[in-house]
Amino acid sequence: MTPADLLAAYDAQLRLDAEMTGARSWHRHGPLVRGVFGRGGFVSYRDLGDLDGARLDALVAETVAWFRDETDVTSFEWKTRGHDRPADLPARLVAHGLEPDPAETVMVGRAELLDRPVDLPDGITLRRAGAGGDLAADVVRASRMQAEVFGGDGGVGPADLVELLAADPGRRGLWLAEDADGTVVCAGRLEVVPGTEFAGLWGGATVAPWRGRGIYRALVAARARAALAAGSVYLHSDCTDLSRPILERSGLVAVTTTTPYLWRRG
Fold first, then answer.
1. Is the pLDDT of residue 155 over 80?
2. CA dihedral 58, 59, 60, 61 (to 10 degrees)
3. S-S: 261 plus which of 29, 93, 118, 237, CB 3.0-4.6 Å?
4. What is the DSSP code string of the chain?
């Protein structure tokens, strides 16, 4: 498939309703869907049509007012993509008080291309969290490592993640790689998107001393294998410049970029 074909599949299957999976409530508002996830909100859309100028400003203002006045969220995210139109949407979001997070590259590809054998360094073992160990303890250890690498909590706290993984193991999983001392040196999640042909790769991180030695590629391959077993055809990931080359070598293709714009209460 060409990058344009992959982008078309991504837009058709992974936006709007698909991004509301797990929301405690959501509704449509014009071209948008607006959802509440715990104490955070999320805005998705596929096409803003011919909205521009005053009409686009009104849509953004109405959305800010709705989250502020009608919900208890502390923040919400308006997720933009680099190929979206109109081109001045980011400037209008900033004008209404939303702040951009760093841009990431959206990678998409067939899962079968990533299911490849990868030799692990001596002393490194790879397993799914909870297999041969305690799920909660595995999640806490992996989350600490990811927080050190990313400089934050990754948006999902360990307790919430344990609950999510335990509730639907057929759809969600966490994989981790450990050294000979049992220290987590690499971890990443897989999430199958219901009603689509896609599964997502999330939270992939490797501690600096172990980078460039094939561990992350092995973790990608293990998750691709699980995605195929769950019936997924494609994998997607929002990735940093650090992981993009690894995913490209594994078989994913850059199709666009994504920049979250965040509103925070107060």
1. no
2. 50
3. 93
4. --HHHHHHHHHHHHSGGGGGTT-SEEEEETTEEEEEETTEEEEEES--TT--HHHHHHHHHHHHHHHHHH---SEEEEEEETT-SSTTHHHHHHHTT-EEPPPEEEEEEEGGGT----PPPTT-EEEETTTTS-HHHHHHHHHHHHHHHHTS-TTS-HHHHHHHHHH-TTTEEEEEEE-TT--EEEEEEEEE-TTSSEEEEEEEEE-GGGTTSSHHHHHHHHHHHHHHHTT--EEEEEE-TTTHHHHHHHT-EEEEEEEEEEEE--
**What is the band of 153 on the pLDDT scale with cuts at 50, 70, 90?**
low
- Left if phi > 0, otherwise alpha if psi is -120 to 50, otherwise beta: which for 30? left
Burial of 72 (0-12, 13-18, 19+ CB in 10 A): exposed
Whether this prediction's pTM lies above 0.85 is answered by yes
Task: With both helix axes pointing from N to C terminus, report the angle between 158-167 and 135-150 in degrees, rounded to the nearest 10.
Answer: 130
Cβ atoms of 150 and 205 closer than 8 Å:
yes
Q: How far apart are the first and last CA of the chain?
A: 46
Distance, in Å, from the CA atom of 44 to the CA atom of 256, rounded to the nearest integer, reads: 16
Q: Tell me how far apart the alpha carbons of residues 245 and 211 are, in angstroms, rounded to a whole number.
A: 12
